Amino acid sequence: MSNPLPQGANIGILGGGQLGRMLAVAASRLGLKAHIFEPGANPPAGQVADQVTTASYEDEAALHRFAQSVDVITYEFENIPTSALDILEQIRPIHPGRQALAISQDRLSEKEFLTGLGLKVAPYANVTSAAEAEAAAQSIGTPSILKTRRMGYDGKGQDRLKNVSDMKKAWQAMQGAPSVLEGFINFSHEVSVIAARTSDGQVACYDPGENVHCEGILHSTTVPATLSAAQRMDAVLLAGQILNALDYVGVMGVELFVTADGLIVNEIAPRVHNSGHWTQNGCDICQFEQHIRAVVGWPLGDGSRHSDIRMENLIGADMERVPELRETNAALHLYGKSEIKPGRKMGHVNFRI
Amino acid sequence: MSNPLPQGANIGILGGGQLGRMLAVAASRLGLKAHIFEPGANPPAGQVADQVTTASYEDEAALHRFAQSVDVITYEFENIPTSALDILEQIRPIHPGRQALAISQDRLSEKEFLTGLGLKVAPYANVTSAAEAEAAAQSIGTPSILKTRRMGYDGKGQDRLKNVSDMKKAWQAMQGAPSVLEGFINFSHEVSVIAARTSDGQVACYDPGENVHCEGILHSTTVPATLSAAQRMDAVLLAGQILNALDYVGVMGVELFVTADGLIVNEIAPRVHNSGHWTQNGCDICQFEQHIRAVVGWPLGDGSRHSDIRMENLIGADMERVPELRETNAALHLYGKSEIKPGRKMGHVNFRI
Question: Which residues contact A56 (CB under 8 A, 6 or more apart)?
Fold first, then answer.
């Protein structure tokens, strides 16, 4: 491995939520320091970071100071304003790189990239006008789902179509935001592959996990997933193909639908992923450490799993389960968020199965 | 469990070394914040703590502010000045409590406490004068080892006697510090039990680990240790007996010599212990989380182990092993210390065995 960053190096992390928090902890385990950049006050990651910059992504001076104070930059979410990235990348390397960010920030680009690799995605149509909306509803049919091209996550910025006639209202709800209509897929279940790649092309994948969503938010991930050996191999190979095509550095979450006709790529996320939290108790080198290793030029762990795990998210009022959960030997991971809100990810728990 | 501290509570930790660092990380996992009190600048624990107070243990105003900013106080080392504890305990609870600290700060008190419980310790004699030194050397014989009663750790403040005539020089080296002469024990190996207790008397022990020391510093711990089922049970029971006798709250390290005549207590440490670092990769609830759980009034993990582990310390120049170790899948834990010094604990590595 060429030129790993030395002990005590500073990792700049854009975003101070739970993913930034767990990245900061993983960095500490490798003797590295984390500097969080986050517009919101008192971010969860700030509690475990060496430094925190509280500033907007429009604050050019703050972006400059942040970049100059660190050795490398990474992020916990993909919707970072392009103008901020333009400033930061002049000063320090950003991993994963701009191409992965650009693709994952835009559902249309993502689908075109994936189909360009020969991978299967759900039928889709670009929607930028009422006329295109109508045509898309006719060609894709129903049930289908209209999603904004940009800034959607955890089921936000989405509207389901039961009938073609639902399109009018759905398109109006998008308020003119460029969107994509996705056809439904007849899939048996969803799995995801947490894959990692270093700058010199080493790729390592964890075993796929089986995801259950609830109201558009991940509810649980179970490892191992229900997959044949051939499907498992396919999943890992296609993840590697995506990472190599992007000359990717870091961890990526690749969500896949399992169908009778093979695996269909649902979505990619150029970052550590909620469906990879099981690795904290299933592996010695978890996805957070794996990401930091890639970003600072260390070799990757091989993704080997010592235990089978079911991860369950603790969302909003699920925090009421904590008193009962702490009576068990399950591994609790709480995010230090002061306020419980419906739909807010407050923590997760890893059960040995 | 009565009155566990709520999410977001502040844990005050006296000492900012690697133990404080790993305690802070464990606190974060439970949604809690850590505030480190440490006289030295840039402590390793500060990199992952929510707050750091840099002040001397003589700074009464700083001690007041620190105590008032936290909900409960714990520590990573036992040699905390009594005057500081007097101030802190007026303001917030300190766990583990004063009795455990007083005993472990003084080798003589410790031995008297242990023998008072009916436990075996090495033959010993109190040495406070040249005359007592001479008498002790005669009664305990050689080989033996003269240790200061207070402030010794990692082989410091110790002198070995090969012959009775060595005592004169050894006692002079102590410069009048009250000391204890310990007779050597014919033991096959050393094990340690990492035990924990809550305020309402729940006790949990991890399986004993087998320790190898090198030049007075722990070199490795291997779990499971070489012990018969009866010895394993003895080890755990005597650890529980010690914790109950002290009405102890938190994690304690109990070092034991294994001899043909049974287990002999070498030393107790009222804190998380280097010989318990294997729990980070052998258990879902590691010793650091276990300690935090006890201190904040959560129920304990039951100490169950999912994997067999060999922990090796990385001391001083052992850091040269890091490039090779990071090519393996071993779990590295580095402490973020900027300067490598001979004998300085820089990190450790947990190997799955």
Answer: A39, A62
